[in-house]
Design goal:
The protein is mainly beta. It has helices spanning about 5-10, 50, and strands at about 10-25, 30-45, 65-70, 75-80, 85-95, 100-105. The protein has one domain (about 5-20, about 30-105): Thrombin, subunit H (Beta Barrel), CATH 2.40.10.270. Strands 1-2-3-6-5-4 form a 6-stranded antiparallel beta barrel. β5 and β6 form a beta hairpin.
Length: about 110
């Protein structure tokens, strides 16, 4: 069984929230639209090596790695198990089994 097969067998539903517009009023940025959909992803705890690839201010143990076939963008919000993570970076691993690998850090207002 290949790594791709193993990952596909462990997919779970993840809510993707993508901000699709912003306005600035009196210097305050507000989201005007949010697109919400459910995607399939394999979710893992981020390891030390993965965290080292994040900027210093974003290196937190409350990070997850999302393996998905859905194209993600930096800033997307991914909710799994009631906890929301913000995508900090993504890597296109299409040549390695058709997956996008994204690292998300926990958004402060969700329970762990």
């Amino acid at each position: 069984m290949s790594v791709v097969d193993v990952i596909r067998r462990r997919l779970e539903s993840v809510t993707l929230t993508r901000r699709s517009g912003q306005t600035i009023t009196d210097g305050i940025v507000s989201d005007t639209n949010q697109d919400v959909s459910v995607i399939q992803a394999h979710v893992q705890q981020a390891n030390k090596k993965t965290l080292e690839n994040l900027p210093e201010g974003q290196r937190t143990t409350d990070s997850r790695v999302f393996w998905t076939e859905t194209v993600l963008q930096v800033g997307d919000l991914l909710t799994v198990g009631g906890v929301t993570y913000k995508v900090q970076n993504d890597e296109d691993w299409i040549t390695y089994g058709e997956f996008i690998i994204a690292v998300g850090t926990k958004v402060d207002d969700t329970p762990l």
